[in-house]
Task: structure prediction
Amino acid sequence: MKKILKLKKEKNAIILAHNYQRPEIQDIADYLGDSLGLSLHASETDAKIIVFCGVTFMAETAALLNPDKTVLIPDRNALCPLAGMLPAELARMYREKHPEANMVLYVNTLAEAKAECDAVCTSANSVETVNRMKSDTVLFGPDANLAKYTEKFTAKHLIPVPRSGFCPVHKLFSKDDVLELKKRYPEAEVLVHPECDPEVCDIADLVGSTAKMSDWVKKSNADKFIVATEIGMLHRLKKDREDAVYIPAYNQAVCVNMKMHTLEKLYLSLKKERYVVNVRPDIATAARKAVDFVLK
Ligand code: 13P
Ligand code: SF4
Result:
């Protein structure tokens, strides 16, 4: 731990970590947040090196927003399977088939796919972003559950791209499990990530990004929360409000990709300045435009 902090100072580096990281990574991070918060922080930092503890699409977003900085990822195998469900060719195919429709992509996409769309959104601003599109029909991907959830709050017609993209971790939550827990803890509030199936979202007190969950518990009068998102979020919430009790809606909901980064790998990443995250310049220019659409 001390060695990491020393190296970080010497190299003018900053550690950004997603809310699903291992507790010890969360505890050492300079900034801990959701996809939107991490992108914003990456675009504002003065540090020379950004060490990104999250999945690769997040580190790529930091890299394309910071072409003059070095972005490192401690383990480059930390891939998001949801992002892999929308290759750039497929995004192009949908665009050709629906030339009248704008395309909004969730930040959980590869940089090549981002380069094909009009705007990139996160689960924290999907409704707002879709509403800003000129077309009445909007192509939206790759998470079909987020598409359904977003569509409920806009007058636009959303076409999911691909038809049923999903997060394998959020698919694990079930309405029955949540209702069972609700019977045991009737006073608990239910927090659900919009990547969950609609019937799980329907019984939530809050449907929102990990940052929205964090804001919610800080303001809520409840002291018990049933949490339907990746298990790492419980540590994050404990940091927000230590007095509250957090009950996982399913205790095996682990994103193994998020957990690939360890303190050892983080130390080696800083020491050896590896693994550098690069995005091809032409792709970075096009993708940056789509990301900037929501950041500015
Ligand atoms: P948030 O932007 O809500 O942190 O979500 C990112 C993610 O990967 C959810 O699975
Ligand atoms: Fe991707 Fe799901 Fe892991 Fe989030 S939790 S990084 S969407 S696989």
Remarks:
- The domain at 170-248 is CATH 3.40.50.10800 (Rossmann fold).
- Residues 19, 34-35, 108, 122-123, 167, 195, 209-210 surround 1,3-dihydroxyacetonephosphate (ligand 1) (CB under 6 Å).
- DSSP finds 15 helices and twelve strands in the chain.
- The CA atoms of residues 91 and 97 lie 10 Å apart.
